[in-house]
Amino acid sequence: MNVRDSEATEATLKAAGHTLAANENEADLIIVNSCSVRGKAEDKAIGKLGLLCATKRDRPNRIIGLMGCMAQRLGSDIFKKIPRLDFSVGTRRCGAIPFMVARVMAGETNITEISSPDEIPDVPDAHSEHGFSAFVTILLGCNRRCAYCIVPDVRGPEFSRPAREVLAEVTALAHQGVKEVTLLGQSVMNYGLMQQVWTPNDPQSPHGFKEPFSRLLEAVSSIPGILRVRFTSGHPSGCTDELVKAVSLLPNVCHHLHLPVQSGSDAILSAMRRGYTRAAYLDAIRRLRAVMPDFALTTDVIVGFPGETVQDFEETRSLMNAADFDNAFIFKYSPRPGTPAAAMKDDVPETEKMRRNQLLLADQDTRGEAANQRLMGSVQEVLVEGASLRNAARWSGRSPGNKIVVFDPVPDLTPGTLAKIRINRVAPQTLYGEVVQTNG
């Protein structure tokens, strides 16, 4: 979501007459897009801003700005932490940035804008020039109020964009050559539950879907030129029978979902206010894979939440084994100011948090390699991305299950095309293979 916000900001600044600098040193304007989900993310942003603002001693006309969640959380207090900062813009305000830059260029400084919960969000549909893949925001904010999470405070309540706006944005992207779109929302399957996103004049669902998100998936996947549709992030409550049916019936909707679990212990899930039980989470997975055995699942897990016992942790380990995740992102708990969990005693020692973190990482490596071993000899349809980040002599792309596939390029193969790759080697997070067919 921050990548999308940064891209929208770049596009609006270009439209206002600014040009992209070749690198940070050459830039006259630098904006740090911040995240508040963990304390470490804020610490890194503050450190970077301090270094950037220090360069103004030699370059007094350089403009340094802050945007995003930390700007929203701290408001005008950010200028006490970073005195030379020129401006700060909160969430849902990407479109205001060119005007704030103009104000700084006119002589103002230390100016800030933050959004209020009751205002209609500013959601720019502008995209930078890019290749074949794009992010499209469909839902902003979150209403879930998990005990550890600051997102509802900094990104506001849920707001779903009208379906017509989303479809117009995706259609424009398809005309620009985009082949893959990822629909974004903090709890993306809640799309359309708080606002009326479809009107009586909109076309009815050919498959008879009634739920707003299933209807949107169907409509986006039918846009000419769009080869793949992804969506993130999910919540088990969104895995309805209709959603499962939609993903299974729509051929270009990828069989992959990022479905954060956070814990496998009912006691900890309740303390976290996650809104589901261990059994309900595993049932959502069962229903997805009963219809789509190839369905790939990734997740987020927090270790060391207040009150987490060794038994709670072992229940998380056993759930992760039962779920057979393709990948997992594992975080040590850190309190966020103002959240209910921040008032709880942070009683798991840091050394124990690290031990649990390392155990889950090792478990996931074992699971990931076993899952990938099952794909040895298979042919995967890969959306080609281009040169591999680690070895420019080889190319890479992603399978429908969002697995990275590395292969030797062949003549006439270009980024944005589909290629069939036979897998001949695997690692815990990567597949390797050879091109057996290109689809153009």
Explain the overall architecture.
This protein is of the alpha/beta class and about 450 residues long. The protein folds into 3 domains: about 1-115, Methylthiotransferase, N-terminal domain (Rossmann fold, 3-Layer(aba) Sandwich); about 135-370, tm_1862 like domain (pyruvate-formate lyase- activating enzyme), CATH 3.80.30; about 380-440, OB fold (Dihydrolipoamide Acetyltransferase, E2P) (Beta Barrel). Helix content is about 35%, strand content about 20%. It is built from 13 helices and 17 strands. Strands 13-14-15-17-16 form a 5-stranded mixed barrel. It is globular, with a radius of gyration of 23 Å. The two termini are about 30 Å apart. The mean pLDDT is about 95.
Summarize this, please?
The protein has about 450 residues and is an alpha/beta fold.
